[in-house]
Design a protein that fits this description.
The structure holds two protein chains of two kinds. Chain A is built from eight helices and ten strands. Chain A is α+β, with helices and mostly antiparallel strands. Chain A has a single domain (72-268), classed as 2-Layer Sandwich (Alpha-Beta Plaits). By secondary structure, chain B is mainly α. The chains are: A alpha+beta, B mainly alpha. The structure holds iron/sulfur cluster (2 copies). One iron/sulfur cluster is lined by residues 133-136, 139-141, 158, 175, 177, 179-180, 203 of chain A.
């Protein structure tokens, strides 16, 4: 099986600018109606409070949710750090250009994925490790979020519903991996398939529109294109998937495994 | 059997209106800051993706913690039946409500999307301690408001003890909830300790009583109402005990942390080599918040002095703010340990102590919330009879009935 093609058991949502207003990240169709009513009020308040305020996120609620995620699948990522070259940032660049975030080196800039250089002070052993949202099964960000904006899809992908995130940043306090960023200024050049909004929190979505369309995340594709092939994406629940087979053969770890968060991202060679 | 007479303050003096104008200006500055923060974004604050809660949280959490403690005096009177404090119970309840509203306003206006307050009120995740706090805070205002009504309405006076007990229990749960916001953050070495909940309760006793004493002394002085020495000195002694209690909890907290190897790096940072955070801990929280007030309250040279009560209370307040800064900002300045025992570096500030400098809008918002609380108190004192005509010592133990009489406003 082609490692770049995940086995997808569910209806596939189309991707691309034409489908831009669709927020495939939304969990249930049923609550859309309800939410839109509330958003109507909130939107009116927003307009009254701060004219000119970005309402981009609201526009995304215009259509029902995309394909429902299936609980039979658990999407995961295996990163072989031995194959990851310290100087390579292909995954970071690919994520940034696909999802439309920019890191200009300021502490307020978002970084959905970053390369962390890790070395053991006692032995000198070193590795370069891509770190992003670990898509925890027991996600602290989901537990602490007061409104339920931080949520876990049935297939294990952890997302922020930009419509109900109030920007309290408690999830950022709770995440052990610094996986989330807060949008602290007005945005331009947004990608229609990756809605972002000033005053809300964001992070790696595992490229949910791509995954729903049967593709692999942008970082995984870029890593393979570079020839490193350090990342394997797939269904952790499927014993026949390449990721599960690799996990069955080689030791892999979860970051901060002591916290028992059951992360969807695993690392080899650490 | 004497009856306590309460009276609105006249609120006609230039001093009163000057204070109202000054506080209004601070509130306006806070609102302006909040407007800019929402319009331009949090980029104009000192907050980053590393330090996500800044100066507004320092003020907000301080006020919310103090609010619960400000109810002390009322609780002592109605729950524990100490009649000496009954004349002060109304003021105590008023302070609790006003401080909480001030703190909550800051918290809401510091949200990334304050316009989504409706969303916060309609979407709940009941696993979130934060969501629980939304109920605890609004419920506290409601319960304490009802408590005030019961105290002020003669026909309802007999329920005072019952409602007072409810308010007392509520505030204990509320502060437990506030402390747990931090105590539950398992991923952050400077927090992650269940003792934070009881520690916050003792902190609330201390901060709340200090603010209560300052307001009481200022109100009595400003309106020329007598304030008996015995009552004042009793409250002062209580504050000294609370301040000592905070020191005890800080000691217990840090000793527990030091015992666990994984936290030692964070502890060394906060207690020994953390620069401003170490300074704020030792000089702010320990010295100003605990040692100095105890010296002022109990040294033979100053123990009878009213000025010492005022300075000691102010010192507790400043020390309390320093402690909040230390807990909230210092706790985030220490980097997360994602790869324990390893040296790490990245473009996202992994492995380095995070920098934070409060910005003007953040300070304006924080001070605006404090000013709002004080403004509410000033206006409420003028509108309703919260303050007794006198807090004389003989009106203390001999009291057996407390009536909610209100006479015509006198000159102040
Ligand atoms: S890594 Fe952080 S943001 Fe991602 S699911 Fe886990 S706690 Fe949430
Ligand atoms: S910032 Fe948004 S997603 Fe994060 S906890 Fe708050 S409401 Fe939830």
């Amino acid at each position: 099986m082609n490692p770049l093609k995940p086995r997808s058991r569910r209806r596939v949502a189309p991707e691309g600018p034409g489908d831009g207003m669709r927020d495939s990240a939304l969990p249930q169709v049923a609550c859309d109606q309800d939410r839109r009513r509330v958003l109507g009020i909130a939107g009116a308040v927003a307009l009254a409070l701060a004219p000119g305020l970005s309402l981009i996120a609201y526009a995304q609620s215009g259509s029902p949710a995309g394909a429902a995620a299936s609980a039979r699948t658990r999407w995961g990522l295996l990163i072989d750090t031995a194959k990851c070259t310290p100087s390579c940032t292909a995954c970071v660049t690919a994520c940034s250009s696909y999802n439309g975030w920019k890191n200009e080196g300021r502490p307020t800039d978002p970084q959905w994925i970053r390369k962390v250089q890790v070395s053991d002070p006692s032995t000198g052993f070193s590795r370069s490790v891509p770190v992003m949202c670990q898509h925890c099964a027991n996600a602290p960000c989901v537990e602490v979020c007061p409104t339920g904006a931080s949520f876990k899809r049935a297939d294990g992908i952890v997302l922020v519903d930009r419509h109900i995130c109030i920007g309290c940043r408690y999830c950022m306090m709770a995440c052990p991996y610094k996986a989330r960023s807060f949008v602290s200024e007005n945005l331009s050049d947004q990608k229609p398939w990756a809605p972002r909004g000033k005053g809300t929190v964001e992070g790696c979505t595992l490229c949910v529109p791509r995954v729903d369309a049967g593709k692999v995340p942008a970082c995984v594709e870029a890593c393979a294109r570079e020839g490193n092939g350090a990342m394997t994406f797939g269904d952790l629940n499927d014993p026949a998937s390449p990721i599960r087979r690799a996990l069955a053969q080689h030791p892999a770890v979860q970051l901060r495994a002591d916290l028992l968060l059951d992360t969807g991202v695993r690392y080899e060679g650490l | 059997m004497s009856v306590v007479h309460y009276r609105e303050i006249a609120g006609r003096s230039p001093g009163y209106w000057g204070l109202v104008a000054l506080l209004t200006a601070f509130v306006a500055a806070g609102l302006t800051a909040a407007w800019f923060m929402e319009h331009i974004g949090h980029i104009i604050t000192g907050m980053t993706n590393q330090v996500v809660w800044g100066m507004p949280h320092v003020f907000a959490v301080f006020l919310i913690v103090a609010a619960s403690g400000a109810l002390n005096v009322a609780s002592i009177a109605s729950v524990f039946g100490k009649v000496a404090y009954k004349p002060l119970a109304r003021l105590s309840g008023l302070l609790a409500v006003a401080l909480l509203i001030g703190g909550l306003s800051i918290l809401v206006l510091d949200l990334g999307r304050p316009d989504r307050l409706v969303v916060a009120m309609t979407h709940y995740n009941f696993r979130s301690i934060f969501a629980w706090n939304i109920f605890l805070y609004t419920g506290f205002v409601a319960v304490t408001g009802f408590y005030l009504w019961v105290m002020m309405e003669r026909r309802l006076n007999r329920y005072t003890r019952m409602v007072g007990t409810a308010a007392f229990l509520w505030r204990l749960i509320l502060t437990t909830g506030t402390g747990s916001i931090f105590g539950f953050l398992v991923a952050r070495a400077p927090y992650d300790e269940a003792i934070m909940a009881p520690m916050f309760i003792v902190m609330s006793f201390s901060f709340g009583l200090a603010i209560f004493l300052l307001v009481l002394m200022a109100a009595c002085k400003g309106t020329g109402r007598p304030l008996g020495d015995v009552t004042l000195m009793r409250l002062k002694n209580l504050l000294g005990v609370f301040a000592a209690g905070v020191l005890y909890f800080l000691l217990a907290f840090h000793i527990t942390k030091l015992y666990e190897a994984e936290f030692r790096g964070a502890e060394a940072f906060l207690l020994l080599n953390g620069g401003i955070y170490t300074f704020l801990f030792w000089f702010g929280a320990v010295f100003l918040g605990g040692v100095l007030p105890m010296l002022l309250f109990w040294l033979p040279q100053t123990r009878r002095s009213r000025a010492a009560v005022g300075w000691g209370s102010a010192s507790v307040v400043v020390g309390g703010l320093a402690l909040m800064y230390d807990i909230i900002i210092g706790g985030q300045a220490w980097p997360l340990s994602i790869f324990p025992g390893m040296h790490v570096s990245s473009s996202f500030y992994d492995g380095v102590v995070n920098f934070y400098a409060p910005s003007l809008p953040e300070c304006a918002l924080g001070l605006g919330g404090c000013a709002l609380a004080m403004l509410l108190i000033l206006l409420a004192l003028r509108l309703l009879p919260f303050l007794p005509e006198s807090v004389l010592d003989d009106s203390g133990e001999s009291h057996s009935a407390v009536a909610g009489t209100s006479t015509a406003p006198g000159a102040a």
